[in-house]
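Hi there,

I know you've been waiting on this one. I reran it after we fixed the sequence typo, so this is the corrected version. Both the input and the resulting structure follow.
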Amino acid sequence: MNQHWRATLLTPAFTAAGGLLLWPMVGPAWAATGAALFLAVLLTHHRAHLHQLEIWFRDARADTLPAGSGRWERVFSHLSRLLRRQSQTEGRLMERIQRFEAAGAAMPETVVVLDEDNRIQWCNPKAAQYLGLDPARDVGQQVSYLVRQPSFVEYLQRSEFSQPLLLRLSPPGLEEVSLSVQFVPYGEHEKLMMGRDVTRWEKLETTRRDFVANVSHELRTPLTVLNGFLETLLDLREPDPRMMQRSLELMSQQTTRMTRLVEDLLTLSRLENTLHPSKDEPVDVPELCDHLLQEAQALSGGRHDVRLRCESRSGLRGSTDELRSAFGNLVTNAIRYTPAGGQVEMRWFERGNQPVFAVSDTGIGIEPQHIERLTERFYRVDRSRSRETGGTGLGLAIVKHVLQRHQAHLEVRSAPGKGSTFSAVFPAERMQPVVHNESLAAVR
């Protein structure tokens, strides 16, 4: 600052000194005139640069900044440095804004930035997808004008954001979703509107409640039967051998049913435990089919024509126990739901390069609306018939999970009164050759 004032005061000092030096030589009039001309030139110089500065301020860019001369050269040089620093600062700020927007765009939750009047300042792609917002067009719009659900408008007006709000939405191209929305204040008056898709968790909670209710129901029936017979036997004053025998037989059936249910539940729990992956061992499927044929014939007791068509020498890589459980459930279901005199056929073959295990029957068949839900736990097309045949309602759920652990899938073809075909289709990479000494039998 002192240097600036010294430079400022030197100009009139030098002008006065020059006038005094000229005074004795040219007289006072010419000395004053010379000093006045010098000051006029200096003033014109400054006015010219001020005019350049004024013009430049109308379009302040680094490439149009005047060069200047004299003291103005330093002024314009300082301005040039300020512009460079400002440009660098703006670049850093823009980079941070872009990183913030990139982070917001990558978030799986919906994010909307609102000002103090709940006008949209920015939103990420998830918010655009779920809430139907346009990131360019809707900036500055009231969010309540665009999200018009009454519960949302009321939630926004209350300004009580301690608990999230659950919205049911139907975004274009998506199934109905449940979005948990909560407002988070930040800055002085702004707020973030955060939304999380909780559709999957809602479905899991519904599944959990249904599962508990179904297990309770499935166990209540046999326990009620057992309790009834026990009370009857306890009330008998004199033993009745025939009644006791019949009661014990029925109680044994119910305990067997409960045991089977618990075993299936444990199997499902083990299959769903991701900490215990499926084994990767060679499985001799033709040999496994032979065992299944013997078990199926024993379960049928001669009431059905049970056949096996083993058309492939290939085996699988996987878990022998899990595959035996899955295939066994398919065969058992076919026998249970096929009337006496019907036919049940197991088939092991290759379809293209994919190994397939299929079970066909001439049973009662299934209505089309039931097929998609067959692998749900405890889902039964006919509950009374399922219980009569001893089913737990978990067999096809076990099949589904075993196949998923082997990257396979279940195909179902069925028609009422025309029987059903359940096919377990495995990927080609699961196939493995199996060496047999004996010739392959076509039909057994």
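Quick highlight: The longest strand covers residues 177-186.

Best,
R. S.
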